[in-house]
Amino acid sequence: MIESANPNADRPTDDLVDVLIIGAGASGAVVASSLAETRMKILCLEQGDWVKPGEFPANGRDWEARRYTDFDLSPNRRGRDTDYPVNDDNSIMKVANFNGVGGGTILFTAHYPRMHPSDFRVRTLDGVADDWPIDYWTLEPYFAENDRITGVAGLAGDPAYPPHEPTLPPVPLGKTGTRYAQAMNQLGWHWWPSDISLATTEYNGRAKCINLGHCTPGCAQGAKASVDITYWPQALRARVELRTRCRVREITTNPNGMASGVIYYDPRGVERFQPAEMVILAANGIGTPRLLLNSASTRFPDGLANSSGLVGKNLMLHPWPQVLGYVEDELDGDRAPQTVMWSKQFYETDPSRDFVRGYTLQFSRGTGPVNEAITSMMYGRLPWGRDHHRIYRELIYRRLQIGVACEDLPEEHNRVSLDPVLKDSHGIPAPRIDYTVSENTRRMMEHGVARASEILAVAGAKYIGWSRTLLNSPGHLLGTARMGLDPARSVVNQWGRSHDVKNLFIVDGSIWVTSGGVNPTSTIQALALYIADNIKNRLAMLFD
């Protein structure tokens, strides 16, 4: 527990900075780039490292195998020295993340939907959870700015989606998308080409996508808009400092209850003190509450910024059933971006259903030969013995797969806490995850599985099967330091500022009030731009 006006008494102390950002992922990169125009002295500490283009699995023939080793979604299986362990034994959903410059955008699929206007008003519309303290239209200009910087492929005019203008042409439907679209047309259900954050043409110095395998284990071509190649170059040119392999242990406070800096371990393992006038957390919905809880002190005995008792609670992970089947004709397989189209047919609440809120149907292409073999053997589709090769030929490059992106409503018993035993390589307590799927979500999942199975049947698929919860995916870590107007019911205010510590801000998915039924990266980044704008506009009064 650190609470001292002179925390550098027994450890090396670095030069004071104006702004200290913790985490160089989707939100940390955005806020660094945006605040750079103030010419304040800005430093970002990132526990991971840069990933060089030549290190991505797509450069070698073993790219699929490396999805199960050093580029695995799970930090527990990946086991890099820059990772921290996560105790998720008490959760049916397993944590997915990536520790490094770019964070989760290194491994994400690049599916890039926005939250819908209704997602910010679920209490008003449906009588559940809470409304956000801001609405969609407050964020709309930041969505547009983020799309411009990121480069988003898509098609304007979707009648089931907020009006917007994608910056790049859509990803072609290909054989797989055409098969889906024909089935959806037969059913009379909504579908539309997905918004995807990759370059379908050359954009801002990035080469266009050349279908170099799936996007998830990193894009060696540089077409996918991970923030190490979008926002970070802008921030670094503006003289933001980024230090890698620096793991923060705790945030320190002074006798006035203000954040005074952080204790961190440098690349040599030396414990150091970094003083700062302002601290911004961008460590994701697991890392941020972990750090706040580990920053307990005499003034903040339950963890920093936790007078509400909500730090770590209301964890939302997006249960994500996957329904798949196989057709007779060869399709795209892994030879194009993974996501091709979406359906919002079941997104909004329908009183005739036995659950509130809804889900997105996310239509994917197939997978590569190694992953097809592994997963098909695991689920019993691919036998050993005489029929092994014959059935494998019926599976390879013939897969259709639909994800059901279910809205996950907040519940306080779903939470992140500090594990009393498990620690990382620096002795910092690891996060423990306690998570169960709610009854409302279970009914939503069953509805989505049934509708997706119906689509695949109409598409002519056989061997239709499903996984009701796809473990270690999708890696959407939300809600554990929620925003709100009431300090008793939230951790930060409507522009990301801690109710308790006036120079502490949070910009990652922790601040979400509800989760929507979409991938969160686009909205996380729009929120980070919005918070950065508020910081810039309020600098004079931040410490009043």
Task: Describe the structure in your own words.
Helices cover 22% and strands 17% of the residues. It is α/β, with parallel strands linked by helices. The strands form three sheets. Strands 1, 2, 5, 6, 7, 8 and 16 form a seven-stranded mixed beta sheet that branches. A hairpin with a 5-residue loop joins β7 (259-265) and β8. The longest helix has 20 residues, at 439-458. The model is unreliable at 1-5 (pLDDT under 50).
The total count of helices amounts to 11
Radius of gyration: 23 Å
Strand content: 15-25%
- β-strand number: 16
Level of helix content? 10-25%
Average pLDDT, to the nearest integer?
A: 94
Q: Which structural class should the secondary elements be placed in?
A: alpha/beta
| Shape verdict | globular
- Give start-end ranges of low-pLDDT stretches: 1-5
What is the terminal separation in angstroms? 26 Å
Largest sheet properties: 7 strands, mixed
- The sequence of SSEs as H and E is EHEHEHHHEHEEEEHEEEHHEEEHEEH
Key attributes of the depicted protein:
disordered N terminus, 17% strand, alpha/beta, single chain, globular, 544 residues
State the gist of this model.
With 544 residues, the protein is of the alpha/beta class. Helix content is 22%, strand content 17%. It has 11 helices and 16 strands.
How is the topology of this model organized?
Blueprint: E1 17-22, H1 26-35, E2 42-45, H2 75-78, E3 87-91, H3 122-126, H4 136-150, H5 174-187, E4 192-193, H6 231-237, E5 241-243, E6 247-253, E7 259-265, E8 271-281, H7 284-293, E9 322-326, E10 339-343, E11 359-364, H8 369-378, H9 388-395, E12 399-406, E13 415-423, E14 429-435, H10 439-458, E15 462-467, E16 504-506, H11 521-537
Parallel strand pairs: 1-2, 1-8, 2-5, 3-14, 8-16
Antiparallel strand pairs: 4-10, 6-7, 7-8, 9-12, 9-15, 10-11, 11-12, 13-14
Helix pairs in contact: 1-6, 1-11, 4-11
